[in-house]
Design brief:
Blueprint: H1 3-7, H2 12-15, H3 30-33, H4 37-44, E1 54-55, H5 66-89, H6 91-106, E2 113-116, H7 119-128, E3 138-142, H8 147-159, E4 163-167, E5 172-173, H9 175-188, E6 192-198, H10 210-219, E7 223-228, E8 246-250, E9 262-266, H11 299-303, H12 305-315, H13 317-335, E10 341-346, E11 356-360, H14 366-380, E12 382-383, E13 385-387, E14 395-398, H15 406-418
Parallel strand pairs: 1-12, 3-4, 3-6, 5-10, 6-7, 7-8
Antiparallel strand pairs: 2-9, 8-9, 10-11, 11-14, 13-14
Bound molecules: pyridoxal-5'-phosphate.
Pyridoxal-5'-phosphate binds at residues 118-120, 146, 198, 202, 227, 229-230, 250.
Length: 419
Amino acid sequence: MKRRSFLSGVAASALLPKAGLLLAEGGPSTTELARDETFWAKVAARYDRTDGIVNLEHGYWGKMARPVQEAYLSATRMVNQQNSYYARREFDKDALAARDRIAGALGVNGDEMAITRNASEAMHNLLRQHRGLGSGDAVLYADVDYPNFKATVAWLAEARGARSIELKIPSRADQDMLFTLYRDALDANPDLKVMLVTHVSNQHGLVLPVARIAAEAKKRGVDVICDSAQSWGLLDYRLPELGVDWAVFNLHKWIGAPVGTGALYMRRGSLEKVAPYPAMKDPENTSTEARVHLATTNFAAILAIPDALDFHLSVGAANKEARLRYLRSLWTAEALRMKHIEVLGGLDEPSWSGLASFRRVGESSRQDAIDLQLQMEREFGIFTVARHGLASGSCVRITPQVFNTPADMKKLVSALQAL
Ligand SMILES: Cc1ncc(COP(=O)(O)O)c(C=O)c1O
């Protein structure tokens, strides 16, 4: 296997020749395309489906499309065959090319980006290596943030003698409500130094108005760490639109790269407050990569990143967001009319994403959500996941992928009616 053959990608665009070009060519709008079952059937044909169940739990990690999987397997074979002769001589250059593809797709500079194994590694390094926090300072997170990240922010505060504040957000909210809640918290806590803001919540897919919140934080000198783990690929955006200095990403969710791929972004000029990884040197504070130490890692997973981006872009980032929003709306529109079901997530379209949650009215304990997930699986053949950590209680998350169909969503609606 020649290295060039997978570095240049499997030419996913050749498999879906016009997928990313329909708009430019005066084809249907993303909204029209979102309902075009012929188009999405072609996309779905590039994925293997889960056997034995309707899988509506794709917020965990994203399945690789077949061309990406093939590139990954080819890379695995090549790395194994060539071993250290490849890894010692050529991997660094290829990893740099993958890093630059990530940066390019997000609209930032290569040196502002570092590849990590997941969003958690990026977040943990940012927090553990943050050197601008001390006693008398405060940190902020919200109930909608990722449970482990809330715990790590609270740990950081405790370790540095700082105060931590948890913002509680209603189970459904719109952009203005969310902005007002964060702005009021900034006003009420002038000792704030660091805040965590999640772009898309893992619990119910709520989209936070990150750019508006970050602008307020910046005015007050508060560092924002943006958790974009669930958002990149689910939503179509470029990183500068968010206006944050630091952000963490997964490529193994909605970008569809192999499991074990994530990224850390640090804007040029913002590195001084975060120390390099222990024992790494960056005297000029110019290297985001010095904040991470990957050590021996899954070479092939990194080599397949450009292939995943190729496939993602060939479907079209905006098309994908619109399709996922459409599939979500097929069940939320129905569920919102059911008296026994409470839907969690957005109140206005910008606050919704492709994923959302529900529970039976009045049943919000951890055990209620666990039981409901099991009932959905055993009685209705629908796989979901129980989510915990919201101030309003636990819920069951529904996360369709691009290869799910309106028929899958109809099956979900029938199950909700029968609950
Ligand atoms: C919002 C959010 N943040 C962070 C993570 C952590 O991702 P990972 O386990 O890949 O580091 C997840 C994973 O589900 C998530 O949804």
